[in-house]
Design goal:
The structure is a homodimer of 314-residue chains. Chain A contains eight helices and 22 strands. Chain A has 314 residues and is of the alpha+beta class. In chain A, strand 18 and strand 19 form a beta hairpin. The longest helix of chain A has 12 residues.
Chain lengths: 314, 314
């Protein structure tokens, strides 16, 4: 099942169910995705019962499937990305056996085709292609073996980053505030069964095709996480309840074969350049630049749709 | 003006205006504090117009004045606290010219008299007495000179902390997830004019009286911040819009004279013990322990009321 949210006058929009081919939709009997997640066991059968999709879908009419959330937690569990970022940022590697995770701004997830306003081009504007999940309510202390059951929806995310600010904020130990403006979210939030076998050990076995200004930039494979999303949920819920609608990200999708498959963010490519040549070559984004991210399954389907955004001056 | 929120069946409760002596209230014509903050210029005169308080106030009927928020950002701008915590956690000091700040869980602020569930007594349960502010909407890039105008309400906060997890999470550079369960909030959110001259350079010139299991523990003075709340708002808003209802905290209230005035958290006292004797003496909280926090003005008033919580097993 694929869900999306129509832009309406309200901040949470109108929940819709999208046809299997992604071209049409029906309004859901539940107003918002947040509302559905708060009683998912009741909502899911109502949403799945919809089999007629009378309205033509225009992607420009969509908000993010979850336009705002009470909580957004982002992991960093692709080891090849972490290692390169440590080098690029000049951070001393710290390798815990648990997944690094920060809490980011969640009051806004940009629409899939939204222009993204940035206050300063000189702050090293970067994209980060990620996968993510959305939970229903999870009790504090839920173990990983149970946590996977709370993963109700899967999403594809662009975690916008300002790299000039990222290193100093990380060194403070407090995580990122200024370095992390709101994220964008691809059009469709999907139930895990949509992926078939590509939902594999609570990871997304799909290639994340990233294009920067229309040119191929990366095509990393999702199933390379050191910790599956079930473990990320359990980590997040160790000492605190997770409210329904909590969004948890994987961090930048990255593979050890990054020289062949490319990267899901500019900083990683620069990290490779530092390793190879001693200094970075690729520059960060400028106003007017676009980035397009679309995950593809082995059978060619793009279950989340395309996240396509342009950087503009705030 | 003092505002509070009655516990009702809805998660955001019912906004009330509290009498100047704190004993009675009137229901507000706006349902929730979040709603009021989203159009504060319209809401404030309606709330101030209330001068009759027909209902007797029972503090046990209150939620936190803002029971949940889209964003909670906590600074750490009492220099004497930061220096001691670096020592106690074994963190290499990093002293930026900007205020350290992390984003914490905001989907829950505990009621002023709520029991606080913790999953594990062995995680070094600690309180942190703080002041905080609540903003209306702030545009990204708003300078400090303008940011102060967006401070609509002042609050008093207990930032619950699990110290055993705090050091490792801080070393990851990603900030705190597991080490920071939800905060508690004192009964009343107040407009800055309630403080009179004690709202001084965007700081709160009041003593934060902290009692642990009924015994005096600290009485630090609020106006000792390295950055005023106006600067904290500007820092938080440098690259991203702040949604109405953003809560920003000061970090643990602390004075250079901590040996005389005491501390607002156990970790700080332990830090002093480490400095003085080479090892910490005071133990952390146990199930059944209580902590009471009440800020006092020079004239004896307690404008936020008392935050009084008991730790219980989750």
């Amino acid at each position: 099942m694929r869900l999306a949210t129509l832009n309406t006058v309200t901040p949470d929009g109108q929940l819709i169910v999208v046809s299997p081919d992604g071209t049409h939709y029906a309004k859901a009997p539940i107003a918002t995705l947040q509302g559905a997640l708060e009683d998912w066991d009741a909502a899911e059968p109502q949403l799945r019962a919809i089999t007629e999709f009378p309205e033509a879908l225009n992607l420009a009419d969509l908000l993010a499937p979850l336009p705002r959330a009470w909580q957004w937690l982002d992991g960093s569990v692709y080891p090849s990305h972490g290692a390169l970022m440590d080098k690029a940022l000049g951070i001393e590697p710290f390798k815990p056996d648990w997944p690094p995770m920060y809490q980011g701004v969640s009051d806004t997830f940009y629409a899939p085709l939204a222009d993204v306003p940035m206050v300063d081009e000189e702050l090293f504007i970067d994209f980060e292609g990620e996968f993510g999940i959305i939970t229903d309510a999870v009790r504090a202390g839920t173990p990983a073996a149970e946590a996977g059951k709370h993963i109700r929806l899967l999403v594809q995310i662009n975690d916008w980053s300002l790299r000039k600010l990222a290193g100093p904020e990380m060194k403070s130990g407090f995580g990122w505030i200024q370095a992390k403006p709101p994220c964008g979210m691809a059009p469709f939030a999907i139930t895990p069964d949509e992926l078939g076998e590509a939902w594999d050990e609570h990871q997304i076995a799909a290639n994340l095709r990233v294009e920067w200004n229309g040119k191929p930039f990366g095509n990393a494979f999702g199933k390379a996480m050191s910790h599956g999303f079930d473990q990320l949920v359990a980590h997040a819920a160790r000492t605190r309840n997770l409210v329904a609608g909590t969004v948890i990200g994987s961090g930048t999708v990255s593979n050890e074969t990054y020289r062949e498959v490319g990267s899901s963010c500019i900083a990683e490519r620069r990290g490779i350049e530092v390793v190879d040549t001693g200094s970075p070559i690729t520059q960060f984004m400028k106003y007017g630049d676009t980035v397009r991210m679309e995950a593809h399954l082995p059978d060619g389907r793009a279950p989340f749709g395309a996240l396509e955004q342009k950087v503009v001056k705030a």
